Amino acid sequence: MNLARVVENKSFYNYGVITFKTDKKLDIEPGQFLMMKSKDGYNLSKPFSVMDCKDFEFKVLIRNAGDFSKFLIKLKIGEELLFRGPYGSPFSKFIDFNKKYILIGGGCGSAPLMHLKKIYPNIIEDSVFGFSDYRIKSIVDDDNIFVDRIDGMNPVDYILNRNKGKDINIISCGPKGMFIYLKYIIDSYQTAWISMEENMGCGIGMCKGCPVDTVDGVKMVCKDGPLFNIKEVIL
Amino acid sequence: MNLLETNLFNKKIKNPFIIASGPCGNFEELSEIIDINNLGGITTKTITKEPKIGNKAPRIVNLNDGLLNSIGLENKGIDYFIENEIKRIEDYNTLKIISIGGYNEYDFEYMIEKIDDYDIDFYELNLSCPNVNKGGATLLNDKKLLSKVIERSCNSTDKPIFLKFGYESNLEELVKIGVYNGASGVTLINTLKGMKIDINTGKPILKMKTGGVSGSFIKPMAVHCIYKIREKFPYLPIIGMGGVFNHEDAIELAMAGANLIGVGTAMMMDPEIVNKIIKNTAFYLSSKNKNFEDIVSKSHERTDNYVL
């Protein structure tokens, strides 16, 4: 396990963006995740996709959803936690760099997509990052944050309408409900990749704790993913 | 001098620390993080005759100081294991324990006969997985079937067979059935059946609703079971496991009567933790001027107020 120290914590009740500094130079590709845990007690590490990474620093986007995120939100500058990784296959292993992609993020699932947008801007056609709290704009700087529902439209409809008539390739990360909707509405010729999340144990494929049903049998989100072709997974 | 060295069935084991069945799969991923050859032994994930797809997600829930799982013995079956995994496992220079699970005596016999000629050391019969509807639980409830499974398994091999039990109310009786039918040792204890409910939705978090609880809170039960069986069966080899996170936990299980110590859940939390436990146990033994075998079953000595 490696040590990471908080250098910035921009958190409010629902969401937070926390920047950590480490002693280890990090090479994290968009789509990969870190397993993070507190220094105290015996707990499973939790997977976090990084939102940004540069040399010795990485940034995570969190939602106040459980005990560990509650702990993260309260972290003060200088406080430490443990992490290991990066794990999981990077987006670059699957996507075609000759194509353009539309990014659809739901809540904290926006983090790896924001990382992708920053590292590979040339392959991004358009993006939308949906959140449920407008205050996210005070901690995340992006022109495509979608908070209010426009004419009853959700972020998925909104971005697909905006890009009607184009050859659409999608990369999405967010809640399962969003993927189910996406699978329902996209046409069979369209390509969509989804970055999945599941309760994880070890994060490296040994415990078999994070299964996803696919047309080729059960796979593990941590080792075989987290990115899957939407046609491959049984949602 | 290696203070941690121990012996079982005239076999020298470099240290008493083994990986418990399950959390570390079949060590392919773990071998990229730690040197498997530094371990006393490894136990495979439970292998079944036919492939098992396991239970639906969520399969795993964090608990403070432990976890709840309902993996459901996911594995690709004995034929896949032989074709793709056993050769790699044979290459490790450590004690190799193969965990097998089945529904009846023929399943166990079939699997043992298929892998018996490979370079493996012991078998562990998983008789107590809380995450399968048939099989483990049924075996413990049907003593006639249990006897047949153990007898037939033992007759299929010359290698030692360990029986893995959970926190059973009739544990002594089960161990007696095991010994009578030829088992060489027991593994104590498997996870305990448990549940966690999301108070925002009112629903159980695990898709299967119930699962196996592991972690610090099961250590007192593990110590009790090991102590109880050691008291009744003074010479029966015991692999002790349940809530081992540090060298103090390991020493406690050894003093209760465990000859080998399994580390499981802790490995999922920190895959390097076993190396720290090995190092700190050696340091403890050295500071007490003892070796590991000196402390095994120490709590059964009939003296008052001894100091190590």
Cα end-to-end separation of chain A? 33 Å
Order of helices and strands of chain B: EEEEEEHHEHEHHEHEEEHEHEHHH
For the biggest sheet of chain B, the summary is:
8 strands, parallel, barrel
Number of extended strands of chain A: 14
Can you walk through the features of this model?
The complex is a heterodimer of chains A (235) and B (308). Chain A has helices at 67-73, 110-119, 155-162, 176-185, 221-224; strands at 2-11, 15-22, 33-37, 46-54, 57-63, 80-87, 101-106, 124-130, 145-146, 169-173, 191-195, 211-214, 217-220, 227-229. Chain A is of the alpha/beta class and 235 residues long. In chain A, strands 1-2-5-4-3-6 form a 6-stranded antiparallel β-barrel. With 308 residues, chain B is of the alpha/beta class. The model of chain B has no long low-confidence stretch (mean pLDDT 94). Chain B is globular and about 50 Å long. Chain B has 11 helices and 14 strands. An 8-stranded parallel beta barrel of chain B has the order 3-4-7-8-9-10-13-14, surrounded by 5 helices. Chain B has a 4-stranded antiparallel beta sheet with strand order 5-6-12-11, with no helix packed on it. Chain A binds chain B through residues 1, 37, 41-46, 67-68, 84, 198-202, 204-213, 217-218, 223, and chain B through 22-25, 27-30, 33, 45, 53-54, 56-62, 64-67, 69, 71, 74, 215-216, 245, 265-272.
What is the topological layout?
The complex is a heterodimer of chains A (235) and B (308).
Chain A: E1 2-11, E2 15-22, E3 33-37, E4 46-54, E5 57-63, H1 67-73, E6 80-87, E7 101-106, H2 110-119, E8 124-130, E9 145-146, H3 155-162, E10 169-173, H4 176-185, E11 191-195, E12 211-214, E13 217-220, H5 221-224, E14 227-229
Parallel strand pairs in A: 7-8, 7-10, 8-9, 10-11
Antiparallel strand pairs in A: 1-2, 1-6, 2-5, 3-4, 3-6, 4-5, 11-14, 12-13
Chain B: E1 6-8, E2 11-13, E3 17-19, E4 41-43, E5 60-63, E6 66-69, H1 77-84, H2 86-90, E7 95-100, H3 105-115, E8 122-126, H4 136-141, H5 143-155, E9 161-165, H6 171-180, E10 185-188, E11 192-195, E12 210-215, H7 219-232, E13 238-241, H8 247-256, E14 260-263, H9 265-269, H10 273-288, H11 292-295
Parallel strand pairs in B: 3-4, 3-14, 4-7, 7-8, 8-9, 9-10, 10-13, 13-14
Antiparallel strand pairs in B: 1-2, 5-6, 6-12, 11-12
Helix pairs in contact in B: 3-5, 7-8, 8-10
